[in-house]
From TrEMBL:
Keyword annotations: Bacterial flagellum, Coiled coil, Secreted
Organism of derivation: Piscinibacter gummiphilus
Stretches assigned to the Flagellar hook-associated protein 2 N-terminal domain: 2-93
Membrane-crossing segments per the record: none
Pfam assignment, any one: Flagellin_IN
Name of protein: Flagellar hook-associated protein 2
Length: 462
């Protein structure tokens, strides 16, 4: 009876099994769509990089002696060459106090007033820096150790940095301007309210060469950087020259006895990298689609997305754009002209280095070929911008990839709901069949007993 019930239920369960098999297939398709989405997203990223306004105007700078000066470029830097001579580096003013036994030594209480400005002339006179104001640092009880004075000065934001330095005679306070340049020197005055230990007082931190007062010794005089760029005198408070040419930043590192050369050229290596990255992203997506939509005659198996109209439509768009034409450039009209060529298999592309190098000799033409043109004239649209638009639309919230995945998910839910309903009916069917066969089994047992009785009686009569 159990064997009969099992076989009958297998027949009854066949529609549910078919739905479960279909659900498994759809789950596999959904997973494949997730992979497809990641490949499309990668193509979108690489397309955006190639359609960037900065890529095709990007420059790179080199220095003939990187120990003298380093150079970097910005988005508006024009190609060119420069001659640079560095006669003086910008220096920050530095002064140090007399030594005390240790950083915990009590140096007294009172006030320190710090002013930023420039020291000029001989004898030196001090001129306040435009826009700067004096900063007063209060040194109270419990704040009078050398280390505490250092911390109070640093917390005041007065445009100087204080440090405790140790030598054979003890601990000294070294004060240095935060910024380099003549205009960033400093003057310090002291007002004492309580003396420190062993004759120490806040006057040991005063610095004023004009009045001849104070206990600080100047170790470095503030000075501006001086250089010649293409024969023109350049003076800067900083060793970084950022406004001497459009988008060009020069960092002075040491003095030079003879001129060095700085050159600015188009950054073709970055452009080549962007092209190769795009080609890889295109091939990854195209090969994935090719694999998932083809039929393998040898194994008699079909790809998970074979016949999927959404994917086939995406593949058709890719092929149309890769063979497209842009009428804006004068010399480069197709991606093939720029060295991006369709291969014999029909679905992958490769870089022709010779053609790409020739095309990169005119980045402006490459920019026209790749980037969007007149929005009202489709023939002028940049070819890579078209890929970016295609990928963006495909990945949009209401785009074909998202819509297709939502459709598959809805079908899976419907199948699961139908199987759940069938399981309820199948359980009732199995219960009914079992009752019928149990009744039949009981009746068969009774008939068997009756048969045995009749046989016995007949035997006795004989």
């Amino acid at each position: 009876m159990e064997s009969i019930v099992t076989q009958l239920m297998a027949v009854e369960r066949k529609p549910a099994s078919l739905l479960e098999a279909a659900t498994t297939t759809m789950k596999s398709q959904l997973s494949t769509y997730g992979q497809l989405q990641s490949y499309v997203s990668a193509l979108q990223d690489k397309s955006r990089a190639m359609a960037s306004t900065t890529l095709w105007s990007q420059t790179v700078a080199t220095s003939s002696d990187a120990t003298v000066a380093s150079v970097t470029t910005g988005t508006n830097t024009a190609a060119g060459s420069y001659s640079l001579t560095v006669s003086q580096l910008a220096v920050a003013q530095t002064a140090s106090s007399t030594a005390v036994p240790a950083k915990t030594h009590n140096v007294g209480q009172g006030k320190l007033t710090i002013e930023l400005g420039s020291w000029t002339g001989d004898p030196a006179t001090f001129g306040l820096k435009a826009g700067a104001s004096s900063v007063t640092v209060d040194i109270g009880e419990g704040e009078s150790s050398l280390a505490a004075v250092r911390d109070k000065i640093n917390a005041a934001g007065a445009g100087v940095v204080a440090t405790v330095i140790y030598d054979a005679t003890g601990a000294r306070l070294s004060i240095r301007s935060t910024d380099t340049g003549v205009a960033n020197g400093f003057r310090i005055s002291a007002e004492e309210t309580a003396p420190g230990d062993d004759g120490a007082s806040l006057s040991m931190f005063a610095f004023d060469p004009a009045s001849g007062s104070g206990g600080m010794t100047e170790n470095m005089k503030a000075q501006d950087a001086k250089a010649k760029l293409n024969g023109l005198d350049i003076t800067s408070a900083s060793n970084t020259l950022s406004d001497v040419a459009d988008g060009l930043t020069i960092k002075l590192l040491k003095k030079s006895e003879s001129p060095i050369d700085l050159s600015v050229a188009q950054d073709t290596e970055s452009m080549k990298t962007a092209v190769n990255d795009f080609v890889k992203a295109y091939n990854d997506l195209s090969s994935f689609i090719q694999t998932q939509t083809k039929y393998n005659a040898d194994s008699k198996t079909a790809g998970k997305l074979q016949g999927d109209r959404t994917v086939i439509g995406l593949q058709a768009q890719m092929r149309e754009i890769i063979r497209g034409v842009n009428s804006s450039p004068k010399t480069l009209r197709t991606l093939s002209d720029a060295g991006i060529e369709v291969q014999k298999d029909g679905y992958t592309i490769a870089v022709n280095s010779k053609k790409l190098n020739a095309a990169l000799a005119d980045p402006a033409e490459m920019k026209k070929l790749m980037m969007s043109g007149d929005s009202a004239n489709e023939s002028t649209w940049g070819l890579i911008s078209r890929f970016n638009s295609m990928a963006t639309n495909a990945l949009a919230a209401e785009g074909p990839l998202t819509t297709r995945q939502e459709g598959i998910q809805a079908s899976i839910k419907r199948n699961n709901d139908r199987v759940a309903d069938m399981e309820v009916r199948l359980a009732a069917t199995e219960e009914r069949i079992r009752k019928q066969y149990q009744t039949l089994d009981s009746n068969m047992a009774k008939l068997s007993a009756l048969n045995s009785y009749v046989s016995t009686q007949l035997s006795s009569l004989g």
